[in-house]
Amino acid sequence: MHTVFDGKILTKEYRYINGIQHMWGKGFIGFQKTLVSDAYESIFINGKYQIKDMFKGLFWSVKTYDPLNDNALISSTYGSLNPNSVFTKSTITNQRFDKGSNRYLILATLEQNIDYLQGITINKSYQYDDIGDLTLQQVNTDYNSQASNTQKFFYTPENFNGDHYFLENIVELKTFQLRMQPHIQLKVSRTITAMVLYYKVVNMVIIHCQS
To answer: How far is CA 148 from CA 14, 88, 138, 191, in A?
Structure first.
């Protein structure tokens, strides 16, 4: 994509790999991999756009999806197109939750974020109410083994007001923090009572139907 701005041509590239067609009725569900470059200045020569400064680094955001799991996101990187030479990398583990009657939902259960420049690794795990409506119950975060954070979510019961049916709504968020220092463990606990800033169906999830 080329944009003329303030007398300059700014270019951003988009690339797509392996279009995915769902064979059980959902049709086209995206691509297995997408690549998006940072914006860079280009010039128009002989009917073609070219990078103005060939010696300036060009970095890419690359996302990879799982075609066997409704094309859910499984990894993303930023930096070089070489996966072994990137600045940051995120890896996601997804799980399919079956709710019966051909209903299911695919949710992230584990996530790892690595910043190779800073030497930092952040790990997250997500817990859901797999007996009920799959609402998010708890998020555990580990910050490079130097600190940890646990968030617990509390909801109002689902209800029906005579006209509309509402799923659970977040009313309280409790956060527990643990910071690790040499010979010292500092535990911080706090409770956040959430103002109801969400529309009452904010936690409604779309259960995909498989034919």
So the answer is: 37, 20, 13, 16
SS3 state of residue 84:
coil
* Integer Cα distance of 130 and 8 in angstroms: 53
Q: Are 27 and 21 in contact (CB under 8 A)?
A: yes
The residue length of the chain stands at 211
- Rounded Cα–Cα distance for residues 8 and 191 (Å): 51
What is the Cα–Cα distance from 76 to 29, expressed in whole angstroms? 18
The CA distance from 116 to 86, in Å, is 8
Residues 6+ apart with CB under 8 A from 195: none
Q: What is the pTM of this model?
A: 0.74
For residue 140 the two structure tokens come to: 């555990």
Q: Which residues contact 136 (CB under 8 A, 6 or more apart)?
A: 126, 127, 128, 153
Residues 187/211, Cβ–Cβ less than 8 Å: no
pLDDT (tens digit per residue) in 9-67 = 888 999 999 999 888 788 898 999 999 998 888 888 888 878 777 788 889 999 999 99
Alpha carbons 88 and 78: distance in angstroms, whole number: 5
